[in-house]
Amino acid sequence: NVQPVVPFGVSQSTNVILRVIMPLMSQPGSDGDRANGMGDILASAFFSPKVAWKVVWVLGPVVLLPTATDIALGSQKFGIGPTVVVLTQPGKWTLGALANHIWSTSGAANRNDVNSTFLQPFANYNLGDGLAVGVSMEATGNWDAEETWTAPLLFSVGKVTRLGKRPVNLQVAA
Fold first, then answer.
1. Which of 155, 153, 77 has the alpha carbon at shortest distance from 116?
2. pLDDT under 70 in the chain at which residues?
3. pLDDT value of position 137
4. The predicted structure's pLDDT at residue 93
5. What are phi and psi of 73, to 5 degrees?
6. 132, 117 in Cβ contact below 8 A?
7. Rounded to two decimals, what is the model's pTM?
C-alpha cells in the first residue's frame, strides 16, 4: 500500500487528516495468469481536535473509489461510510484502533455490492526522531459473503517526516 497520511488545519481548534490508501497488488487471475496493478483507492478524512486529550477520538467519512487497473483487483463499485480512530499516547506508546464500514452506492451491476467492515487495532512504540515500530491487525469482514473475515497481523516501521511544510507518515509493514 502507498498510504500517505497528511494533516491540514481547517480552524483554530480543528485539523482534517487525509488518509489515502493506494494498493499495489498482484494476485492470480481467473484465467491462470496473474493480475498486477493498482486496486481500488480508499480515502478517509478524519476531523480531529488540534489540542490532544488523554484519549483522542477522530471521525469522518471514508470513500471507496473504483480505480483498479484490472477487473480482478477491485470491486468496480463506488462506496461510502463512516470511519473512526480512537487512540491514547502513554509515554512512548501510541495505542488505539481504527474502524470503518463501507456500503457501495453505485458501480458495475454485474459485480457484488460492497458491505464491509474494517477493524485495525494498533500499538506503536516511538523510538524518537519520528521513528516508530509497531504491530497491528487489519481485520476485514464481508457481510454479504456469509460473514467472511480475514485478519492478518502486521509488523511495521514508520517515520514521520516532512514533504515541504507538510508532516507525512511513511511506513513499511509485513
1. 77
2. 29-30, 147
3. 97
4. 96
5. -105, 0
6. no
7. 0.86
Closest CA to 101 of 128, 123, 129, 82: 82
Q: How far apart are CA 7 and CA 72, in angstroms?
A: 33
Q: How far apart are CA 49 and CA 59, in angstroms?
A: 10
CA distance linking residue 37 with residue 60, whole number of Å: 28
What are the cell numbers at 111? 459485480
HEC string of the chain equals CECCEEEEECCCCEEEEEEEEECEEEEECCCCCEEEEECCEEEEEEEEECCCCCEEEEEEEEEEECCCCCHHHCCCEEEEEEEEEEEECCCCEEEEEEEEEEEEEEECCCCCCCEEEEEEEEEEEEEECCEEEEEEECEEEECCCCCEEECCEEEEEEEEEEECCEEEEEEEEC
Cell numbers 497491528 correspond to what residue?
A: 136
Q: With contact defined as beta carbons under 8 Å apart, do 75 and 64 qualify?
A: yes
Cell of 1: 500500500
- Cβ proximity of 171 and 154 under 8 Å: no
Cell of 166: 507538510
* pLDDT given for residue 114 in this prediction: 93
- Report the length, in residues, of the chain: 174
Side chain identity, residue 151: A
